[in-house]
Design a protein that fits this description.
about 230 residues, alpha+beta, Nucleotidyltransferase, domain 5, Immunoglobulin-like, nine-stranded mixed β-sheet, three-stranded antiparallel β-sheet, 12 strands, about 30% helix
Amino acid sequence: MVLIISADSGSALLDGSYRPVKVLVTVAIISEPPYRRPSSGLYKIIEREPQDMTIIKEELECIMKLLDKTRRSVDVAHIDISAGAIDLSELRIEDIDTLDIPRHVRTYLRNLLPQISPLLKRLKEEYGISPIGIGKESVVVRLAELGVATYGVLYGLERIKRLKHIRIGLPKAVTIQITDRSIRAKSLLPGEHDLEYEIKIDPSLLKNVELSEYPNPIARGFRVVEIRTQ
């Protein structure tokens, strides 16, 4: 049985024009066969600028926090960097031009690698886990992305009494199902109908609150959860 750990960041606070103002949440998870949902996880509110490249550092740190918390024997880490599924802990700046990846990804890696290399090496040397640059091809990265959706909505519910009205932008092709005690995120992508991430919530968060979900009118494939006080 191969245990995989991963992390993702997302869910956006949207302005009145449906543009992202802040990236809200980082989620780290561990998943095991059949990789339909997480077996354990944690989240962190980050509230970062959408263009902030250092968000990946939050993801690596959350991965290590989850490893410390669970003490589980994980086999590999799937990192949300599309780099041909190589071991990122062994990547050097001079190797980047040899990678079979798009030019913009090479530029991104050149700028990012000096900042995250110590964390990548720590993951390999202290935890014995290879950080694989597989990006969105990973189902476990996708599960973490679903987790980001649930905690993004929770972020809105926990602040709606003060803000009165809030729009949360979900990750791409994700829908939310809410009951009086849970928030569940499901994938809308073909072949991912059985992927889901569910969290429990305090029923009082839904008191005197209206929620609606609809497509983001300026970002095809993305959906919005709008929350208002009644």
